[in-house]
Amino acid sequence: MKLLVFGQTGQVARELQRAAPEARYLGRDHADLTNPAACAAAIRASGAQAVINAAAYTAVDRAESDTATAQLVNGDSPGGMAQACAAQGIPFLHVSTDYVFDGTGTAPWRPEDPTAPINVYGRTKLAGEAAVRTSGARHVILRTSWVFSAHGANFVKTMLRLGAERSHLRVVADQIGGPTPAKGIAATLLTLAAALRDGATGGTHHYAGVPETSWSCFARETFAQAGMDVTVEDIPTEAYPTPARRPLNSRLDCAALATDFGITPPDWRAGLAEVIGELKGA
Ligand SMILES: NC(=O)C1=CN([C@@H]2O[C@H](COP(=O)(O)OP(=O)(O)OC[C@H]3O[C@@H](n4cnc5c(N)ncnc54)[C@H](OP(=O)(O)O)[C@@H]3O)[C@@H](O)[C@H]2O)C=CC1
Ligand SMILES: Cc1cn([C@H]2C[C@H](O)[C@@H](COP(=O)(O)OP(=O)(O)O[C@H]3O[C@@H](C)C(=O)[C@@H](O)[C@H]3O)O2)c(=O)[nH]c1=O
Ligand SMILES: [Mg+2]
């Protein structure tokens, strides 16, 4: 299958490159997501049989003050890509986030549950979802959460960096979710791209790591696996002020993906061991 991917340097894009090196990857210099028309034109010129968008504006705090850019990248360009896919008659796969939910309650969010983002990043990602759904393209919107890998910026790498400088860290313990290895997201996207090509009905699906955990427990497991002697103090969200509000309940119910496609949630602790091994080898 001739596959076109938006994104080259991001966590998911890097894992896609490993799993599907034959696909074509467009970095910022080839397709700038602040320019929706250019993204659509890149698809029309590509001759691709399916398109994956693995690029996004993911700086959650910066998005609060850089709203227009976040909206173009997360909202408008995915819409332009999906419309171009609809016109070409090819499927479009898009990645979204737990941050489209408001984080109330403790039940895992199902794909059809009401969305109500509480920060700019989440609102712009939700706008992207809506634009993809109304484009007329056969599509999958794959929501995931708390992505980590050996590449790019993520919580694991932040913790390893801070833990090398300090023996005591304070980390929020009341935001609960599923850390997700980028490698598993890439494999899932490739499986779904093949299924769409073969005529599967798409829709909105959830894919996140298990078991559910807090950021502070995620940090502790990171230090345990890395063999670092760092104590992690549990703190409430209020004790770690940030420009963007973050949902307390980021649990994603991934049952539909298993029922429809046989894809089950990854154990993030195994994914973490792989990533730490990769970082140590680097
Ligand atoms: N990271 C996370 O924790 C989560 C991510 N997601 C979603 O998963 C998907 C993949 O995220 P992830 O791999 O972590 O992303 P990263 O933050 O690792 O990388 C973002 C990618 O988007 C690219 N990008 C940003 N702005 C532009 C632009 N204007 N034009 C072209 N490219 C641009 C970046 O390119 P450059 O290097 O040039 O800046 C980079 O390749 C996204 O849709 C994201 O919303 C969902 C849940 C959690
Ligand atoms: C560095 C640090 C962070 N924290 C908190 C802040 C925050 O609540 C939590 C995680 O921090 P991050 O900056 O990694 O979180 P954030 O960038 O908001 O992560 C999110 O990114 C976007 C793209 C998504 O789609 C989400 O699924 C989620 O992964 O940890 C501490 O409590 N102590 C610390 O020392
Ligand atoms: Mg971040």
From TrEMBL:
Domain called RmlD-like substrate binding: residue spans: 1-279
Chemical reaction(s) catalysed: dTDP-beta-L-rhamnose + NADP(+) = dTDP-4-dehydro-beta-L-rhamnose + NADPH + H(+)
The keyword Cytoplasm appears for this protein: no
One of the record's GO molecular function terms: dTDP-4-dehydrorhamnose reductase activity
Keywords carried by this UniProt record: NADP, Oxidoreductase
Name of the top EC class for this enzyme: oxidoreductase
Cofactor(s) needed for function: Mg(2+)
Bound cofactor: record note: Binds 1 Mg(2+) ion per monomer.
GO biological process terms held by the UniProt record: dTDP-rhamnose biosynthetic process
Enzyme Commission number(s) of this protein: 1.1.1.133
Pathway entry: Carbohydrate biosynthesis; dTDP-L-rhamnose biosynthesis
Pfam families cross-referenced by the UniProt entry: RmlD_sub_bind (PF04321)
Superkingdom assignment: Bacteria
Family, as annotated: Belongs to the dTDP-4-dehydrorhamnose reductase family.
Function of the protein: Catalyzes the reduction of dTDP-6-deoxy-L-lyxo-4-hexulose to yield dTDP-L-rhamnose.
Protein name, per record: dTDP-4-dehydrorhamnose reductase
Organism: Gemmobacter aquatilis
Lineage of producing organism: Bacteria, Pseudomonadati, Pseudomonadota, Alphaproteobacteria, Rhodobacterales
